[in-house]
From TrEMBL:
SUPFAM superfamilies: D-aminoacid aminotransferase-like PLP-dependent enzymes
EC number(s) recorded for this UniProt protein: 2.6.1.42
Function as written in the Swiss-Prot or TrEMBL entry: Acts on leucine, isoleucine and valine.
Protein name: Branched-chain-amino-acid aminotransferase
Pathway involvement of the protein, from the record: Amino-acid biosynthesis; L-valine biosynthesis; L-valine from pyruvate: step 4/4; Amino-acid biosynthesis; L-isoleucine biosynthesis; L-isoleucine from 2-oxobutanoate: step 4/4; Amino-acid biosynthesis; L-leucine biosynthesis; L-leucine from 3-methyl-2-oxobutanoate: step 4/4
Amino acid sequence: MPASDPTFKITPSTTRLAAAEREKELKAIQFGRVFTDHMAVVNYRNGTWQDGEVKAYAAIPLSPAASVLHYGQAIFEGFKAYRQPDGSVSMFRPDENWNRFNRSARRLAMPAIPKDLFIGASEALVAIDEAWVPSGPGESLYLRPFMIATDPYLGVRPSETYMFLVIASPAGEYFPQGLKPVSVWVSKDYVRAAPGGTGEAKCAGNYAASLLAQAEAKDQGCDQVIWLDAIEREIIEEMGGMNLFFVYRQHGEPVVVTPALTGTLLAGITRSTLLDLAADLGLKAEERRLRLTDVLQDIASGAISEVFACGTAAVITPVGEIKGRGFAQVVNDGGNGPVAMALRDALLGIQRGTAPDKHGWMHAVPLGSAPR
Ligand SMILES: *Cc1c(COP(=O)(O)O)cnc(C)c1O
């Protein structure tokens, strides 16, 4: 069945921003604060997904007893739609986000959503709000699919009703002044995920539990948190909402290394994309366990030449300094490294449509039929 097959009832907003107002928003993009004119909504009840609707972006009706508000059944995704050189719009690997969404749903005892609904909702939203897809370098339309439990019931059990929504926010160049390396704080007091927990699920609760550690990092003068494993508090897992890469030099050749997926870190789609792109660029790539003490020594000795983080929002962010209680280690003189830059350019080229998409990662959005 083609992805655009499910019927979405389209109810155009009567309060759309005028073109001039929208252009103003797109000139000074406020990512995550400004949303497009519409949203897609699909309800789940009686064991099935109902027909979807695309309608004006607005507050949603929710009982104060809705179980998401009390027991936190809430999952989300994030991916981007990019304006292509020919004026069309393509989304980056939305099928991977759909896969991960359903893995998260399973972990939180929520229903799976069919691919045609997940992708179709995103396509229908992008089509009607196409004018919101910016075209500048590094700009995109960020799509945020999410699902919440809506049963008005305080008993502790999986909800029987859910709401799936997609909202969209224009995203600007993440580093308008050029890439700026971040400093990171290694959290030994707090843990993000434990074996058997929800670390691999993209669920709202993981983020709630990370905010205090993030505040601690800020207090220590750092931009982000690095999470260690829950048992030894020694194995490097990931950074805030991004996965980590370390560039080793072996016989003068760079080798990119990222923490192996152990079940407690989030399997980033950017992470897996960069592993493929590294191979395309002729770089050796490895997934394995990385100990903090080894990594700090290897940075000090020069065996590690670059550290960077990756994720959908910022693509690639160099790490310039790693700090924790009793240590501070500058990486690569606090600057940008050539491997991070090469991978970033390769990825952005594919996303912007200026480099060939030989892996078939771009998903063209059918724009034709939407009322505009
Ligand atoms: C979403 C997320 C990532 C990055 O995943 P991408 O698919 O690359 O955007 C990494 N870590 C956490 C905790 C996340 O929630």
